[in-house]
């Protein structure tokens, strides 16, 4: 009897427990190899991600990172149960209990770690020797990491103990990833107290849990008066929508369960600020069993006279192709992501100004997560006793403050979000440009979707959407100004159409789309659009209760007296944040030439 190669391949796949189609990404508990293994590319394009590895070692899967500025209990923006003793315990636990391999870095606090304002304080990873490109600093077994998928997936029995019933379990499967990660973190903290194997074994997680912040000073916890101190309506709206969304998610899963709302929020903030992610949904780490089984079946297939060696080779090739498709190709198209909370690596802090030298990756063949140094030649990249930063990706201060609890000075990825065009002062634009907005222009822009949403529609969009990263930030369709590119080109297009004369409108074929290019409405029209944009930005800036200069002077006084606890952490953050926002506006205004 002859068996076709395709059928042979299917037999191999089924016998190995790996159907040819893509399935959930599961990890196994083999520790990382001591030597530098070959690594596969873990693209992190969706989450404003870590830069791709340029190491001389084989390419790795770069993960995007999301972690709050970890702070010790004595300094800072997030309080934690850790101190010097806790850090020593964490180091001892990681090496002697958890099987985490580290070399070249240690968790440190105080003077060794720079806060976002340049002062000493907080927790982070600090080098204890010169570090060069390609150096592997930390390797963590996959089994120790808490992981969820972006879409559904199963949850542990420990998590079920926190839920309110069957309806709650169904709600969890449809919940955003950070809800499911919150449940996992709380299950470890309040039920199992273990990381790793789910068969009753695992590693005692107390040392790692003690290193986590127990309170966050993010705007989620601020009063309305404190939010007003930001002088930035967009952030206040974003925080209110975030609160509504999180409470709605909690109501769906609580239903008489054991998890309090405060604990749920703590888990969400831990997830949103400390997780890594990557678009991988295959089987996880390299598993040699299907290949060993393939070799065995080839021998039986040929030795038993069931077919020729060529047919067996064709079948084996199909198995290999199926594995490649399942682990590397299908995940790209399916859009599923893996979110990972990884002990020890989660201590790495962010720098978005070019100082980040750390690279987080999934080790496909070693079944673990690693932190290594980005390649930069043979010269040392990180000096001894220097903090090793990673990049959370191109994040604005809006994102950093809302979800991580700190502000980065001179953030090259910062933005300013003005109110949507529908809320702009039309009369002020007419006075500044000397033009009259003609009838029908606003209706045209409305139909083109360029005016943004009204408040009610924006609130509905923010609360109903299945967000992935920013709780439907800018649900109102506000006008975005970036530090690198200035005003959104779509807004300039809308302003060209809005400020056009009848002749300019007719020359454009009465179509908003024909105003997309620079000077598409003519030089005079372009000048009017630029004046309108500048007028709106100057109006926004002039209505602030304080100037940037006043903010920076106040911030200096606060920082000088921080040791005396003059000005709370929230107040200092608010002043630093609003000063950076005003700087973005000023730079955008200066960039407009009329």
TrEMBL record:
Residues 484-585 form the Rubisco LSMT substrate-binding domain. GO terms for molecular function: protein-lysine N-methyltransferase activity. Keywords: Methyltransferase, S-adenosyl-L-methionine, Signal, Transferase. CDD domains: SET_LSMT. Residues 30-44, 60-83 have a biased composition (Low complexity). Residues 1-24 form the signal peptide. Residues 22-83 are annotated as: Disordered. It comes from the Eukaryota. One of its GO terms (biological process) is methylation. This is Rubisco LSMT substrate-binding domain-containing protein.
């Amino acid at each position: 009897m002859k068996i076709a190669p395709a059928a042979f391949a299917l037999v191999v796949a089924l016998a190995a427990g790996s159907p040819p189609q893509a399935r959930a990404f599961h990890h196994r508990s083999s520790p990382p190899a001591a030597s530098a293994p070959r690594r596969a590319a873990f693209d992190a394009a969706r989450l404003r991600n870590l830069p791709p590895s340029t190491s001389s070692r084989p390419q790795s899967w770069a993960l995007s990172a999301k972690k709050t500025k970890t702070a010790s209990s004595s300094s800072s923006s997030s309080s934690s149960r850790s101190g010097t003793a806790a850090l020593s315990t964490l180091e001892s636990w990681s090496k002697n209990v958890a099987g985490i391999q580290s070399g070249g870095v240690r968790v440190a606090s105080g003077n060794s770690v720079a806060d976002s304002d340049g002062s000493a304080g907080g927790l982070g990873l600090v080098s204890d020797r010169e570090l060069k490109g390609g150096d592997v600093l930390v390797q963590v077994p996959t089994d120790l990491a808490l992981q969820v998928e972006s879409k559904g997936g199963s949850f542990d029995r420990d998590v079920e103990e926190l839920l309110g019933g069957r309806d709650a379990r169904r709600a969890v499967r449809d919940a955003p990833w950070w809800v499911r990660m919150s449940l996992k973190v709380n299950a470890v903290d309040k039920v199992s107290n273990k990381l790793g194997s789910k068969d009753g074994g695992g590693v005692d997680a107390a040392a790692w849990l003690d290193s986590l912040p127990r309170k966050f000073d993010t705007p989620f916890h601020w009063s309305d008066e404190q939010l007003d101190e930001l002088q930035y309506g967009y952030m206040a709206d974003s925080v209110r929508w975030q609160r509504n969304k999180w409470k709605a998610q909690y109501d769906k899963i609580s239903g008489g369960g054991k998890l309090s709302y405060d604990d749920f929020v703590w888990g969400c903030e831990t997830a949103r600020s400390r997780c890594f992610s990557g678009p991988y949904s295959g089987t996880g780490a390299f598993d040699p069993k299907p290949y060993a089984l393939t070799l065995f079946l080839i021998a039986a297939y040929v030795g038993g006279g069931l077919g020729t060696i060529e047919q067996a080779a064709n079948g084996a090739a199909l198995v290999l192709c199926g594995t490649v498709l399942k682990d590397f190709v299908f995940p790209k198209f399916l859009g599923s992501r893996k979110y990972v909370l990884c002990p020890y690596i989660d201590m790495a802090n962010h720098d978005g100004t070019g100082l980040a030298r750390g690279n987080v990756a999934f080790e496909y063949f070693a079944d673990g997560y690693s932190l290594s140094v980005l390649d930069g030649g043979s010269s040392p990249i990180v000096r001894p006793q220097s903090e090793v930063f990673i990049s959370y990706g191109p994040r604005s201060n809006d994102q950093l403050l809302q979800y991580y609890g700190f502000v980065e000075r001179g953030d090259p990825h910062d933005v300013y979000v003005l109110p949507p065009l529908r809320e702009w002062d039309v009369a002020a634009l007419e006075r500044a440009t000397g033009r009259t907005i003609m009838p029908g222009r606003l209706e045209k822009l409305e139909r083109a979707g360029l005016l943004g949403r009204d408040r009610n529609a924006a609130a509905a969009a923010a609360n109903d959407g299945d967000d992935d990263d920013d709780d439907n930030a800018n649900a109102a369709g506000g006008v975005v100004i970036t530090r690198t590119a200035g005003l959104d080109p779509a807004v300039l297009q809308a302003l060209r159409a809005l400020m056009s004369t009848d002749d300019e409108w007719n020359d454009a074929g009465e179509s908003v789309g024909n105003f997309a290019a620079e000077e598409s409405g003519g030089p005079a029209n372009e000048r009017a659009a630029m004046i309108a944009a500048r007028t709106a930005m100057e109006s926004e800036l002039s209505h602030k209760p304080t100037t940037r200069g006043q903010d920076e002077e106040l911030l200096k006084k606060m920082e000088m007296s921080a040791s005396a606890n003059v000005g709370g952490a929230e107040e200092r953050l608010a002043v630093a944040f609003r000063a950076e926002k005003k700087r973005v506006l000023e730079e955008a205004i200066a960039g407009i030439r009329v």
